[in-house]
Design a protein that fits this description.
The protein has one helix at residues 60-65, and strands at residues 29-37, 41-46, 54-58, 67-79, 82-98, 104-127, 130-151, 156-177, 182-191, 199-212, 215-230, 233-249. By secondary structure, it is an all-beta fold. Keywords: Signal.
């Protein structure tokens, strides 16, 4: 059922670039960014061992109908030429659907997804207007789907399925300051390599508008694909959609 599968809202911390001016190598630059990735989910998903996977094609508006809570946060710390990134997401959805069967009347589905990524990188090319970073890191994934079947006579049957894995990551990210207000940014990331998922990759491009020296609004487009198939759990999906974030600089 479409509502048992939730959107994965993950953006690498390098993907949302700030518009801060370059500082000396002895100064730390800090950024904190709450953000949203307004993406749907398309692919094949199976989280219950023994049952065949389900083909899903869920637009963002349908996922939003079942959303209970979503929290997304990233942060970065830069001391040229070194940079460190953190990206964490949590999404919870729940829904109840009527079955109209002889034995079971309805099914309730509660899904939770958590991701946590850490990476360290180094500037490999720079100019007065921008720079290019290369980084390595890892992203951990936790999935949890709880099912509650309600019988026509009032009895219930419950089951919870969980899966988790860690993907190593490598990537490049860059930004270019077009003028006093606008900064262009982009990132390309690949991972998995059969260690966690078979593969994971993403690409993002966009721009940040600086409202002040300490605050900016970032917007862009991100595409991500992940292919995990182990232990009876299949998560082979792609996601695309606009990105919107608020970046605070310290």
């Amino acid at each position: 059922m479409r509502s048992s599968f939730i959107i994965y809202l993950t953006i690498s911390a390098v993907s949302v670039a700030g518009a801060a001016n370059a500082q000396s190598a002895s100064d730390w630059q800090w950024q904190a960014t709450p953000y949203a990735w307004m993406s749907g989910l398309k692919g094949n998903v199976g989280t219950v061992a023994g049952l065949p996977p389900t083909e899903v094609d869920i637009p963002f508006r349908d996922i939003l109908d079942d959303l209970d809570f979503a929290g997304m946060f990233m942060a970065s710390a830069r001391n040229d030429p070194w940079v460190f990134y953190l990206d964490s997401t949590y999404v919870k959805t729940s829904t109840t659907e009527a079955l109209g069967g002889v034995v079971f009347d309805s099914i309730g589905i509660r899904s939770k997804t958590t991701t946590f990524a850490l990476a360290a990188g180094r500037t490999v090319a720079s100019s007065p207007k921008g720079h290019l970073d290369a980084y390595v890191g890892a992203r951990a994934w936790w999935l949890s789907n709880s099912f509650k079947l309600r019988g026509v006579n009032g009895g219930t049957t419950s089951q919870t399925e969980k899966a988790s894995w860690v993907n190593p990551l490598i990537g490049v990210a860059g930004r270019y300051r077009a003028d006093d207000r606008w900064t262009l940014f982009g990132a390309l990331e690949v991972g998995g390599f059969g260690v966690g998922a078979d593969s994971e990759w993403s690409v993002l491009a966009g721009a940040t508008y600086s409202v002040s020296d300490s605050f900016g609004v970032s917007m862009g487009w991100r595409h991500m694909e992940v292919d995990y198939d182990k232990g009876g759990v299949l998560f082979d999906v792609e996601q695309s959609g606009p990105v919107l974030g608020a970046t605070f600089r310290f």
